[in-house]
Amino acid sequence: MGSLTTLKVAVIGCGSIAKNRHLGEFDHNPNVEIVAVCDIVEERVQEVAEQYGVKAYTNYEDVLKIEEIDAVSVCLPNYLHAPVSIAALEAGKHVLCEKPMATSIEEADAMIEAAKKNDRKLMIAHNQRFVSSHQKARALIESGEVGKIFSFRSAFGHGGPETWSADGKDSWFFKKDEAFIGAMGDLGVHKTDLLRYLLGEEFVEVASFIETSAKDFANVDDNAVCILKSESGIIGTLAASWAYTAGEDNSTIIYGEHATLRLEDDPNYSLIVQYKNGEVVKYELGAIQSNEDGGQTTSHTIDHFVEAVLENKEPLIDGEEGKKSLEVILAALESMETKKFSRIN
Predict the structure, then answer these.
(1) Model pTM?
(2) Is the peptide bond before 77 cis (omega within 30 degrees of 0)?
(3) CATH number of 7-127+301-316: 3.40.50.620, 3.90.1150.10, 3.40.50.720, 3.30.930.10?
(4) Of 61, 88, 249, 341, which residue has the fewest beta carbons closer than 10 angstroms?
(5) Which residue ranges does the record assign to the Gfo/Idh/MocA-like oxidoreductase N-terminal domain (predicted)?
C-alpha cells in the first residue's frame, strides 16, 4: 500500500453533507484518522469536533497548514469548491470535493492543473456510479446484452434542500451568488455523471428548460428538464427538481434494442430488466441510501477515495470526469439563456 497506511483527513465545511456522509464514512473506514474539522459557524464546528474527538477550526487556511493532514474533503457551498480545493492541492493535500466541482470550466481546469502540478489526487464526489443497480446496468450494457441503446429518461428530484440542509430555507443552496446553480447543480450533475458512466459515451448536444417555479424564496433553478444527445445519437431526457414534494425520484430507464432497463424505478427491485422476448429479470441489489435513512456509512464514495490515495491509483471520478459532467450542465444553462441547442465541446 505504499508508505501511507493511515490517511489523516480534515473535513472543511460541516453542513449536512459532511455530517450525513463524509464524517460518518471516514470514521467508518479503518484506514482513516479524522484530524480536524472546519466551519465558519463556531457552534456547528464545535459540536462536530466534540462528536469525533478532533480539533475544531473556523478558518480553512489554518487547517491547510497542518502538516500531518494528507487529505481534505471540501463540503462547502459551490462557489468555494474551486478556490479551497486549489488551496488544498497547493498545500500538498489530496482532495475529495463535493459536486458540482466548480462554477465554470476555467475553475475546473485550474483544479485539474493544481492536482497535476502538485501530484495529488482530486476526486469529485459523484456517488451514483457506486450504486449496485447502476454498476449492474453498466455491465449489462457493456456486455452487449441490451444491444444498441436508443433512448433514456432519468430523473433526480426531492422536496428540496430546505428539509435537510443545515440552514433550512436560509441555506446557501438557494442563493445564486453562493450556489451558482440550483437543482441542476445539486441533482442534475449527478445524473449527468451517471448517464455518461452507463452509456459509456459523451454528450454532444443539449436543450433545456431551467426554471424557478416552486421556491418563491430562491433565486436559483428548482425545476429543470433537459434533452441530451450522445456521440452515437442516443437521445433522452434528464429532469432535476426540488419540487417532487411527495417523495424522491431517483430513477433511470434505458431503452435498448433487446431490453429495457429500469433502475431505481421500483420500490422493491433496484434493477428490472424487461427483455424484448417478454422475459423479465428482477434484481434486488440494495437500495440507494438517502439522507432520510439517518445518514450514510456505505455510499462507497469515501472508501474509493481513501483506497485511491493509499494505493496511489487514479480515482474513478477524477477532475477530468467531474469537468465533463459539469460541461453538460453549463451547456444546459447556455441553452436556456439562448433558447437554442448548445454544443458540448
Answers:
(1) 0.95
(2) no
(3) 3.40.50.720
(4) 61
(5) 7-126
